[in-house]
């Protein structure tokens, strides 16, 4: 067994600068890119020099986000599409290929929850609205799978690409109320691992699939559950913070460094993992 690793021509020091450290020619598509977390991640990608396609259903929100990135010196285009409509995804893929020629990164940031798929304290499991449950699971799971099918095929033809799914702490622990959201995000975790194996074994080591599992961040869909009108924490907000060792909610920009690491060629041997960005929530037993 050799121990002279530094002398082996096949080994490379991690401190040697390589071309993979440059983002100049990288192109990313981020679904849900006009939302609170999505727009923060989009700004982080653009600030690093990555060309960013902002994909969302609402043109006004897409345009505003694109303008913000351009005002900050980034390169961005708007992609108006519904992640549940393959024909729309095909059209915006053609748009971004015409504009920039290739796609290197897909961030599946689209997702959310609905009232009917949530079990409130005065409700029971059998009060679940099955239609809302299906809508939530479609948005979170199907809305991750379909963009991966469309944009992932392009990456497979290139023999390179990084897909980053957005999971949740709700996928890893039983969190009250959000039944439909939890189930669909747990499925995203499984899909992440499955697709990482599928792409690497059939299309080579250049195709990678990972996920980020945010802890608790304030976004539009959960603001009223976590914050009172005066900005103080609700009872649920207090419970969450008390079970988060860092004793606060996350800030959207705190997702960026993990996202960039998973996009970067320097994480080229990393695939099939789900990375918590949660202030220690997943590590804490509550005792």
Describe this structure in words.
The structure is a single chain. This protein has helices at about 35-45, 60-70, 85-100, 130-160, 180-205, 225, 235-240, 255-265, and strands spanning about 25-30, 50-55, 75-80, 105-110, 160-165, 205-215, 275. By secondary structure, it is of the alpha/beta class. It has one domain (about 20-285): NAD(P)-binding Rossmann-like Domain (Rossmann fold). The protein is globular.
Order of helices and strands: EHEHEHEHEHEHHHE
CATH homologous superfamily assignment: NAD(P)-binding Rossmann-like Domain
Nearest-angstrom radius of gyration? 20 Å
**Structural class by secondary-structure content:** alpha/beta
SS elements, strand count:
7
Strand order of the largest sheet: 3-2-1-4-5-6-7
**Major sheet summary line:** 7 strands, parallel
**Tally of structural domains:** 1
**pLDDT below 50 for ≥5 consecutive residues: which ranges?**
1-21
- First-to-last CA distance: 45 Å
What CATH architecture do you see?
Answer: 3-Layer(aba) Sandwich
CATH class reads Alpha Beta
Query: What percent of residues adopt helix (DSSP H or I)?
Result: 25-40%
> Kindly state the mean pLDDT as a whole number?
90
Number of helices: 8
Strand content: 5-15%
Shape call: globular
